[in-house]
Amino acid sequence: MGKFIQEFKEFALKGNVMDMAVGIIIGGAFGKIITSLVNDIIMPPIGLITGSSFEDAKIVLREAQTDAASGEVLKEAITLNWGSFVQTTVDFFIIAFCIFVLIKAMNSFRKKEAEQPAAPVPTPEDIQLLREIRDELKRRDK
């Protein structure tokens, strides 16, 4: 059991797993921002143009059945909520577009980074000293 726990610790504390966890958390928050953008910014003007809110758009397959005397709902209405589907689809396309732009920017940055020539590695001090000795010996032989 101790070896299993040790292996799990090594796995869980690797950088890739921690990076993935941070990515998932940020991705969830990003999803909420996009959902708010769609629900609160994009869809209201579309609803104004079309005359109704997409979220409320539905086709009633069966009306709700209520008790005439008490008004209590006996059977819930069955609806086909196509407006909610449209809204979720718009969410998806906006998220996909944002991720595309982000990845495109990252690839562009990496390409620029790869195009830059690497700085020459400085000569180690001992090699430099040996070269100076060699040059001095050549000078003395002349």
What does this structure look like?
This protein has 142 residues and is mainly alpha-helical. It has one domain (2-119): Large-conductance mechanosensitive channel, MscL, domain 1 (Non-ribosomal Peptide Synthetase Peptidyl Carrier Protein, Chain A), CATH 1.10.1200.120. It is built from four helices and four strands, in the order ααββββαα. A hairpin with a 6-residue loop joins strand 2 (65-66) and strand 3 (73-75). The mean pLDDT is 82.
Q: Layout of helices and strands, plus pairs?
A:
Blueprint: H1 2-12, H2 15-50, E1 59-62, E2 65-66, E3 73-75, E4 78-80, H3 82-115, H4 125-141
Antiparallel strand pairs: 1-4, 2-3
Counted beta strands: 4
Stretches where pLDDT falls below 50 for ≥5 residues?
none
Topology pattern, helix = H, strand = E: HHEEEEHH
Number of helices: 4
Major sheet: 2 strands, antiparallel
Q: Considering the protein shown, what is the CATH homologous superfamily?
A: Large-conductance mechanosensitive channel, MscL, domain 1
Structural class of the helix and strand makeup? Answer: mainly alpha
Shape: elongated
Helix content: 55-70%
Widest sheet: strand ordering: 1-4
CATH topology value: Non-ribosomal Peptide Synthetase Peptidyl Carrier Protein, Chain A
CATH class: Mainly Alpha
Beta-strand percent range: 5-15%
Q: How many domain regions?
A: 1
